[in-house]
Automatic annotation (TrEMBL):
One of its GO terms (molecular function) is protein kinase activity. SUPFAM superfamilies: Protein kinase-like (PK-like). The keyword DNA-binding does not apply. It comes from the Bacteria. This is ABC-1 domain-containing protein. Belongs to the protein kinase superfamily. ADCK protein kinase family. The keyword Coiled coil does not apply. Pfam families: ABC1. Keywords: Membrane, Transmembrane, Transmembrane helix.
Length: 539
């Protein structure tokens, strides 16, 4: 790592965090317009990105995880950290060799005929090297980056300081960004990915799950060479699923490829079990025979039996407008934090479901009912990480499929695959959803789910807008009141000046009276203009 001093590393991160906090405070005090805020978040994102590349380690992984939290963070910031995965420089070979020999307890030559000293892939936690076993098989060796354990401990301590400061001192809407919950989720995800033995178990579970699916290839694992810090797998050659030129050269039918991808990922999204959370084109290849190759199972999510049941109930509740059932499902799924009021959520869902998801982007926020603000204040909600990963998995695959076929072709392929899945599972409980789905454009349905996952961000924006409006109204009202008292006091001062024949007092009070009266008229006009935004009960 470039920065090995723990103290210096913590100092760099804390300095970055406090500079960001100060910038946000300054913009809030100066009441900067939205366009300036967007530029600020872009600037903050660039600073954050540069610091991550300087320090590497846990911070890169945090950046990757935050890049999928568009429900919590500004788009200008998110856009600056979206491509962190592909630009992590590899470590020195000498350090990697030392780790491998320490983990195996023997020299590399004991197991391998050859090993390429240049990494074929390099990420924040691990790197991949190509090698040939003494038995002749080509393998991929995934090894943890040097000093990663020590660096992660340091970074977690630093992050706890930042989380405490943000949670107690930063003026953010309480309940909408629960920093403690976010920190806990980040810690769990990173600790799981740091243990390669867990990734090995996930890989083996995928291999077992798709053992009868001849269109999917999952690499095998060499258990005797795999540890918590090293994972040795089959080396699989393939082309990127987005490489249309090579697909055409090999004569691979795109319709068959799309159908194969759908059959691989649909069960992952709808059935209990582990799903691949990062199926980008580098982790999903196509063999010369047209088979799908899945790689890198470090970032995964899990749908429990309970999640599957309550997710189904949530969809049924929303479609049938049974909001009591929908809110109960949200509670069990973890969307509502403990302090949330379910009854208020039911009212809010009833309000929100009268609006089409794509209308939220074009909605006139000033015209929103003032009661919405009261609802929002009573709704501490946050999307659990496992569902953010589910959304990431779906959106990534949707992007891949849209590059291979048109919407009409995708819909024609998806419906029979989905209905066949229902038939195979004998899952009659999904029948209500399936009937509704058959009458809808398939990706419009999933788009509405993606928009629903962004609901906390939308609510936060609505709440902030209402808070600004309330603050502005209070400012005008208080200013008008103070100017009235000043005018009345100055008028009395004029009378005192006339009575005492003190020209200076009289002239000064006349000037103050004129200015304060003018200010009173200006703020009265602004207040009347602003009153049209207030609810009738507040006028």
């Amino acid at each position: 790592m470039k920065v090995k001093s723990k103290v210096r590393r913590m100092a760099i991160v804390l300095k970055m965090a406090f500079v960001i906090f100060l910038q946000v405070y300054w913009y809030k005090l100066r009441k900067k317009p939205e366009s300036d805020w967007e530029l600020l978040w872009i600037k903050i994102g660039k600073r954050f990105r540069n610091t991550l590349f300087e320090l590497e380690g846990l911070l890169i992984k945090i950046g990757q995880l935050l890049s999928i939290r568009a429900d919590l963070l500004p788009h200008g910031f998110i856009n600056q950290i979206q491509d962190l995965t592909d630009h992590v420089p590899p470590s020195e070979w000498g350090e990697i060799k030392e780790i491998l020999e320490r983990e195996w307890g023997t020299s590399i030559e004991e197991h391998f005929l050859s090993i390429e000293e240049k990494a074929v892939a390099s990420a924040s936690i691990g790197e991949v090297y190509k090698a040939v076993l003494k038995s002749g098989e080509e393998v991929a060796i995934k090894v943890q980056r040097p000093d990663i354990q020590s660096i992660i401990k340091t970074d977690f301590r630093t992050l706890r300081v930042i989380i405490w400061f943000a949670d107690h001192l930063v003026p953010l809407p309480k309940g909408f960004i629960n920093f403690k919950v976010l920190f806990k989720e980040l810690k769990e995800v990173i600790e799981r990915e740091l243990d390669f033995s867990q990734e090995k178990n996930v890989l083996l579970s995928f291999k077992e799950r798709f053992k009868e699916n001849e269109s999917v290839i999952i690499p095998g694992v060499y258990d005797e060479l795999s540890t918590s810090s090293v994972l040795v797998m089959d080396w699989l050659d393939g082309i990127k699923v987005t490489d249309k030129v090579r697909l055409n050269e090999l004569g691979i039918n795109r319709g068959d490829l799309v159908e194969g991808i759908m059959k691989v990922f649909l069960p992952q999204w709808l059935e209990p079990g582990v799903f691949h959370a990062d199926p980008h084109s580098g982790n999903m290849l196509v063999s010369r025979e047209g088979k799908i190759i899945l790689l890198d199972f470090g970032m995964v999510g899990e749908i429990s039996n309970s999640d599957a049941i309550y997710f189904q109930k949530l969809i049924e509740g929303l479609l049938s407008k049974n909001y009591v059932k929908a809110v109960d499902s949200l509670v069990h799924l973890g969307f509502l934090l403990p302090e949330a009021d379910p009854r208020i959520m039911e009212k809010l869902l009833a309000e929100m479901m009268t609006i089409q998801p794509n209308q939220l982007k074009n909605m006139d926020l000033v015209a929103m009912k003032l009661e919405m603000n009261d609802m929002i204040q009573a709704l501490p909600i946050q999307v659990p990480t496992r569902f953010v990963f589910l959304g990431r998995s779906f959106v990534t695959i949707e992007g891949v499929l849209r590059g291979l076929a048109t919407d009409e072709e995708l819909m024609a392929l998806f419906k029979p695959i989905f209905m066949n899945w229902l038939k195979q599972k004998g899952n009659n409980k999904w029948s209500f959803i399936s009937y509704w789905l058959q009458s809808q454009p398939v990706f419009k349905f999933f788009y509405s789910i993606a928009e629903f996952l962004k609901l906390p961000k939308t609510l936060e924006e609505l709440k902030e807008t209402e808070q600004r409006r309330e603050f502005q109204f209070t400012l005008y009202e208080n200013s008008k009141q103070r100017l009235f008292y000043l005018s009345a006091s100055s008028a009395i001062g004029i009378l005192v000046g006339i009575y005492t024949e003190h020209d200076f007092i009289m002239q000064l009070c006349i000037g103050v009276t004129a200015l304060s009266s003018f200010g009173y008229l200006v703020f009265s006009y602004k207040l009347r203009k602003w009153m049209k935004f207030m609810h009738e009960k507040r006028r």
